Amino acid sequence: MSDYIHSNPHNNPINPHAQPPAPGSEGMTTDLAGKLDYEQYLNLQQVLTAAKPLSEHHDEMLFIIQHQTTELWFKLIVHELEEALRLLAADELDTTFKVLSRVKHIQQQLLSQWSVLATLTPTEYVKFRHLLGPASGIQSYQNRIIEFVLGRKDARMLAVFSHKPAIHARVKACLEAPTLYDQALRYLARTGLSIPREVLERDVTLPYEANPAVIEAWKTVYENPERYWDAYELGEKLVDVDEAQAMFRFRHLKVVERVIGFKRGTGGTAGVKYLANLVHDRMFPELWDVRTEIKG
């Protein structure tokens, strides 16, 4: 018997019924006292206790976590868009492409999340909707920053954040800064393409307005991709982001309609009617218009 114990590395004389280590787990760190562990690194104690339902209704947890995870993804999009703005202004196109590709994939993740919220029925939501008071997604400052960076400027929306000076200042700074598309058009101008001065020097606090000369510039790019490869690739990456943003808005609209119908939003908007006005927005209009103009 003693020979068997010494010859069998998985035999535990103290607990002969102990299971052998899982394949590949040999050497796994188990003494974590006083060391950085997974829970600490991710600050999970704070993250996992952040969802605090105001009611006893089972489905309120879903509603809260859906929006909290959305805000985490928004945080990453803002982080990536800020880097894209910096890279594009510095003509670092290859890295810009990688960042914008990541943004597109985050947007797709956000799009897929709507299917989870769509499992919340009208009957379930009305059980706790009244507890939200005036709280509403329209007050998401991170979403507003994303919208401003992508070009949907609207100074009137600053009023929503007037009660929180630090957030108001941050959103206002985005309102007053060039958009991603502004930086893209400045890049086209630096490559020698003809972008009107009024476009390059426009008031960036206002929504962008399409310009026929910009359509011509993009047409030159798309009809000569070998010569303007970086601009060509940039245009496609921007269309990816614009399309994904439009799909996110549309899915938002349909889930809201499914859950509350045509009730007014908790933040005072017209709800579905308000969201419907946003669905067909194009952040980078000439990149869509040029498709009609490209010749074989």
Task: Outline the structure in words.
The protein is mainly alpha-helical and 296 residues long. It contains 14 helices and no strands. The longest helix is centred in the C-terminal third of the chain and has 32 residues, at 229-260. It is globular and about 80 Å long. It starts with a helix and ends with a helix.
What is the topology?
Elements: H1 2-7, H2 38-41, H3 44-48, H4 60-89, H5 93-117, H6 122-125, H7 141-150, H8 165-175, H9 180-190, H10 197-200, H11 212-223, H12 229-260, H13 272-279, H14 285-293
Number of helices: 14
Radius of gyration: 26 Å
Global geometry: globular
| Order of helical and strand elements | HHHHHHHHHHHHHH
Given the helix and strand composition, which structural class is it?
mainly alpha
Low-pLDDT windows of residues: 1-7
Q: What's the average pLDDT? A: 93
Q: What is the CA-CA span between the terminal residues?
A: 84 Å
Instruction: Please summarize the sheet with the most strands.
Output: none
Q: What is the helix fraction of residues, given as a range?
A: 55-70%
Strand content: under 5%
Q: What is the number of beta strands?
A: 0
What's this model, at a glance?
By secondary structure, the chain is mainly alpha-helical. Helices cover 58% and strands 0% of the residues.
For this entry, give a set of tags.
mainly alpha; single chain; 14 helices; 296 residues; 0% strand; disordered N terminus
